[in-house]
Design goal:
Layout: E1 4-12, E2 19-24, E3 27-31, H1 40-53, E4 61-64, E5 70-76, H2 79-89
Parallel strand pairs: 1-3
Antiparallel strand pairs: 1-5, 2-3, 4-5
Length: 93
């Protein structure tokens, strides 16, 4: 990606459902049903973010933390994506 947005995420695997719990100090707290085995939680995270942001899965990259609960995600830097992120962070969505 030429220009990207970084998203700090804390993932909790093996949850009852997939959900964005809250955004605290710029870190997204996300629960996922997928287990933290065989990269399943990472794959579920990418699908979940793609659905929320309405972008293709291939445009979401885990830059750091593939084997950690805390991750840094790279997203394409587009005005529409920035708007959605702002709305979610401000609790408007």
């Amino acid at each position: 990606m030429s220009s990207e947005i970084s998203l700090n995420v804390k993932v909790t695997p093996n949850a009852a459902k997939n959900e964005l719990v809250r955004v605290v100090n710029g870190e997204w707290v996300i629960k996922l049903r997928a287990p933290a085995l065989e990269n399943k939680a990472n794959a579920a995270l990418i699908v979940f973010l793609a659905e929320i942001l309405n972008i293709p899965k291939g445009e979401i990259i885990i830059k750091k933390g593939e084997k950690s609960r805390r991750k840094i995600i790279a997203l394409p830097d587009r005005a529409r994506i920035r708007d959605i992120l702002t709305q979610i962070t401000e609790g408007k969505i």
